[in-house]
């Protein structure tokens, strides 16, 4: 019995390691394509990679292997190797480009480009889900888990002093409340509240209220909740 348990544990560990290895190879192969999409369109590279990994199983799904379809888009294909309603692409990079095109072309996704920066992957994931990209209610959470697990945010256009958002604790109440994400920004030389407010799409008053500031004076290294 003990031997069987040990075998099961080793098998599970091997599968988990293999899965991580596949994802790591996928990221190494296509991170440049994701960064290119980000630089050309403003979509965080972490979102592009996270969605692709989620939808294609790190490139292992049948439609990814045969049709170069890494985002699960429906459309025409001429393959005799698979019968499906999924779109065929000449290359994986073409599939990536189509993902960006869909987000920019569809009116329901277009506002995201004005609302969120190219490093705000959390709100991009939530926004894409809200706009109806996937029917699953946990889609955004799954994509965010992938981004954090493989630290895909390292490929985003983030300020050098950017600090990873941390969830605010949920206040106990009779009704459950959603966890809100707070961005922590470290003040650098030359910063002022007006520029910081504009950069993070908020107001000076909101920043002062959230941080208990009575004046507009800032000190280098000071951390602000945004």
Radius of gyration: 21 Å
Approximate strand percentage: 5-15%
User: What's the SSE pattern?
Assistant: HHHHHHHEEHHE
First and last CA, distance: 54 Å
Tally of distinct domains = 2
Assembly classification: single chain
Structure class: mainly alpha
Inertia-based shape: elongated
For the biggest β-sheet, the strand order reads 1-2-3
Biggest β-sheet strands, sense, barrel: 3 strands, antiparallel
Q: Treating each run of at least 4 consecutive H or I residues as one helix, how many helices?
A: 9
Low-confidence stretches are 5-18, 170-174
Question: Strands, helices and their partners?
Answer:
Blueprint: H1 2-41, H2 45-56, H3 62-67, H4 92-105, H5 111-115, H6 121-130, H7 139-149, E1 162-167, E2 181-186, H8 193-199, H9 204-211, E3 223-225
Antiparallel strand pairs: 1-2, 2-3
Helix pairs in contact: 1-2, 1-4, 2-7, 6-7
Short synopsis of the structure:
The chain is mainly α. Helices cover 50% and strands 7% of the residues.
Describe the structure.
- The protein is built from nine helices and three strands.
- The chain has 226 residues and is mainly α.
- Strands 1-2-3 form a three-stranded antiparallel sheet.
- Residues 5-18 and 170-174 have low confidence and may be disordered.
- The relative contact order is 0.10.
